From TrEMBL:
<dbReference type="InterPro" id="IPR003593">
    <property type="entry name" value="AAA+_ATPase"/>
</dbReference>
<dbReference type="InterPro" id="IPR050763">
    <property type="entry name" value="ABC_transporter_ATP-binding"/>
</dbReference>
<keyword id="KW-0046">Antibiotic resistance</keyword>
<dbReference type="GO" id="GO:0005524">
    <property type="term" value="F:ATP binding"/>
</dbReference>
<keyword id="KW-0547">Nucleotide-binding</keyword>
<dbReference type="InterPro" id="IPR027417">
    <property type="entry name" value="P-loop_NTPase"/>
</dbReference>
<dbReference type="InterPro" id="IPR017871">
    <property type="entry name" value="ABC_transporter-like_CS"/>
</dbReference>
<keyword id="KW-0813">Transport</keyword>
<protein>
    <submittedName>
        <fullName>ABC transporter ATP-binding protein</fullName>
    </submittedName>
</protein>
<dbReference type="Pfam" id="PF00005">
    <property type="entry name" value="ABC_tran"/>
</dbReference>
<dbReference type="InterPro" id="IPR003439">
    <property type="entry name" value="ABC_transporter-like_ATP-bd"/>
</dbReference>
<keyword id="KW-0067">ATP-binding</keyword>
<feature type="domain" description="ABC transporter">
    <location>
        <begin position="4"/>
        <end position="229"/>
    </location>
</feature>
Length: 237
């Protein structure tokens, strides 16, 4: 069963083809990676997936719905953490979880979410006083408080120190174990290789290849996903 289907997606800004005929599908329950350098079309694709942008051409279906037309309905079934997510500096952790939970018809108990993501010791701490890793943990918890069927995470670990980054990896692994469909967007190839069941390799607004990290590495005769990406990108020049 496909949780997400994208077919011939196109989006242009002025004379720039940000997304140029992208096609891929995400199976229910898998962790699916979107990898590529800055400007490859990753974020624009994600914005079309969650209904923040309307495609110029092509089709997008998330849980069978068109995000551009059914954004409000899909918001009840999606969890989203975007690259520049933030909260008011003085908002407390518990306050944020309680408020976000109130936005969903069938939310998880925000207290249980707080415990699941090890946030109870930080319940009364202000967002502005959290470390980078703690903020990311809270953002993940907020993405999950609606008990979503699909969660989209865009550049989740950018700017984190190595310890916080590894802790965030563990949390994403917990989502996979729980059976949540995860779309993980990153320009960190080691992150995608470690966490994802399958991956779409983006370059210049197109999908150059899809498959498991091992399949892409074997297909290109390289030793890592980053080397496979460079081989695929170079082959298309």
């Amino acid at each position: 069963m496909e949780a997400i289907e994208v077919t011939d997606l196109r989006k242009t800004y002025g004379g720039t083809h940000a997304v140029d005929g992208v096609t891929f599908a995400v199976r229910a329950g898998e962790t699916f990676g979107i990898v590529g350098h800055n400007g490859a079309g990753k974020t624009t694709t994600v914005e079309c997936l969650i209904g923040l942008r309307r495609a110029d051409a092509g089709t997008v279906r998330v849980l069978g719905e068109d995000p551009a037309r059914r954004r409000r309905a899909l918001a009840q079934r999606l969890g989203v953490q975007l690259q520049d997510s933030s909260l008011p500096e003085r908002m407390k952790v518990a306050e944020a979880l309680r408020m976000f939970g109130s936005l969903y018809r069938d939310a998880a108990d925000w207290r249980r979410v707080m415990d699941r993501w090890s946030l109870r010791p930080l319940a009364r701490k202000a967002f502005g006083d959290l470390s980078g890793g703690q903020k990311q943990r809270l953002m993940l918890a907020l993405a999950m408080v609606g008990d979503p069927e699909v969660v989209v995470l865009d550049e989740l670990t950018t700017g984190l120190d190595p310890i916080a980054r590894r802790e965030t990896w563990r949390l994403i692994g917990d989502l996979r174990t729980a059976g949540t469909t995860v779309v993980l967007v990153s320009h960190y190839f080691d992150e995608i290789e470690a966490l994802c069941d399958r991956v779409a390799v983006f370059a210049r607004g197109r999908v150059e290849a899809t498959g498991t990290p091992a399949e892409l590495i074997a297909r290109t005769g390289t030793a890592s996903l980053e080397e496979a990406y460079m081989a695929l990108e170079g082959a298309d020049r």
